[in-house]
Amino acid sequence: MPFIKQITIILLILIPFLGSTQNRYAVKSHEIAIDGTSNVMSWSAEVEQVSGHFDIAIEDGKITSIENVRIRVDTRSIEGSEGRRMNNKIYESLETGDHPFINYELRDILSLYENPGTARITSRGVLTVAGVSRVIELEPVGRVLRNGDIEFTGTQTIDMTDYNIDPPTAMFGVLRTGKEVELSYRVVVSPE
Fold first, then answer.
1. 120 in a domain, yes or no?
2. What is the pTM for the complete model shown?
């Protein structure tokens, strides 16, 4: 009986670790574009500085779970297509002095379907922009790269007014931007 008791105790200690293949990943590289419209022309901006981490489990080269995702965008690293004036309008709208970061934190994965070579993900998380937090759903596509890194791609439409951001204007109000922007992203993460 003592032998069985010892085996049981050892198994109880080891079970939480046996199925756990989740690893911490950090943002390695990114391409994030923000595209918008105005009554005069379309505009775009690129995000230069992003950091973050993901806890991801991989089995047989497939993504099986994602948890603890936190992404941070430095708002002062957003560079508009029209130069310094546009950048200043972006920084003013985002209130970068008071809110230097845009943050995203995953709440839960609603679905994760593995297709050949890719994972279609539906997730829910909290996006905080200019100090205002909203729950959003994202639908990225994930794939494990040959070198073991993981790539996430997708697009998301964001209504600036949901975050109490007045769409920027210029030229004494003659140029007015639309209230929605489209965020396109490609984020590559690698094991820490």
1. yes
2. 0.84
Quote the CA–CA distance of 90 and 76 in Å, as a whole number. Answer: 9
Query: How long is the chain?
Result: 192
Q: How many domains does the chain have?
A: 1
Q: Which long-range CB contacts under 8 A does 120-128 form with residues at least 24 apart?
A: 121/63, 121/66, 121/152, 123/66, 123/69, 125/69, 127/102, 127/103, 127/158, 128/102, 128/103, 128/104
Q: What is the CATH number of the domain that holds 130?
A: 2.40.128.110
Within-domain flag for 4: no
163-189 confidence digits (pLDDT tens):
998 776 666 555 677 789 999 999 999
The average pLDDT across 147-169 equals 90
Q: Give CA–CA dist 116/112, Å, rounded.
A: 13
Q: Which domain holds residue 94?
A: 22-191
Whether 154 contacts 142, CB under 8 Å: no
| Residue 34 placed within a domain | yes
Q: Are 180 and 172 in contact (CB under 8 A)?
A: no
Check whether 108 has a pLDDT greater than 90. Answer: yes
